[in-house]
Structure formats: C-alpha cells, structure tokens
Amino acid sequence: MRPEELAEAELITTRLGEVVVRPQEIIHFPAGILPFTAVKRFVLISRSDQAPFVWLVAADEPELAFVVVGHSPEETTVDLLASRHRHSGFGASATLRVGEG
C-alpha cells in the first residue's frame, strides 16, 4: 500500500482481527441492508481458510457481519450480491472482486 493510501485507510477491528481498509474497498448501500437500514458502509473480508465464504462486515459497526459466497470456489465475487441489490432497490454503489487473503 502506498503512503498516501495508508493515510486514507481505516483500521477496522472485527472478530477476524484487525483489517486495514482503503476508501475504494468500502461498499455503500444507500438504503442499508434490511433490517439494518441505518448501516450503510460495508467491506468484504476474505480468508483463505474460509473459502469460498467471504464476510460482508459493517465498517462502522464491525460486530455486524454477514457470510456471503461467490458463484464459484475459484473466483469469489460480490457481483451477484451487488446486482441483486441494484434490482431490488437497495442500489449498492460498488462491485468488487475479492481475492483470497
């Protein structure tokens, strides 16, 4: 991570440990996720020992987390998740590809 990216990064402490998150890694759900409509910012956290599962963690309330799974074990994506929310009115404003870490 470049120094200027590190300056903008947030440190989020989750049940998976501390995670450094860059602004471009934040997924914004303008209407939140039911029934947590007040929570708008999320980040995806992946661990190789939990593949193909990925955690969708609330950036501002890291104790709130959802397990998501990609459509194939070889490539974990949230394309499907973001697409579903766009069509259901939730309007996720980012689609990220997440590699194992």
The helix fraction, in percent, is 10-25%
Please report the total strand number as a whole number: 6
Main sheet specs = 4 strands, antiparallel
Percentage of β-strand residues? 25-35%
Strand adjacency order, main sheet: 3-4-5-6
The run of helices and strands is HEEEEEEH
Q: How does the overall form come out from the CA principal axes? A: globular
Q: What would you call the structural class? A: alpha+beta
- Distance between the terminal alpha carbons, to the nearest Å? 15 Å
Uncertain ranges:
82-91, 93-101
List keywords for this structure.
two-stranded antiparallel sheet, 2 helices, 101 residues, single chain, 16% helix, four-stranded antiparallel β-sheet, alpha+beta
In brief, what are we looking at here?
With 101 residues, the protein is of the alpha+beta class.
Structural summary, described in words:
This protein has helices at 3-8, 79-88, and strands at residues 10-14, 17-21, 27-28, 41-46, 53-58, 65-69. It starts with a helix and ends in a 13-residue tail after the last helix. It is α+β, with helices and mostly antiparallel strands and 101 residues long. Helices cover 16% and strands 29% of the residues. The protein is built from two helices and six strands, in the order αββββββα. Strand 4 and strand 5 (53-58) form a beta hairpin. It is globular.
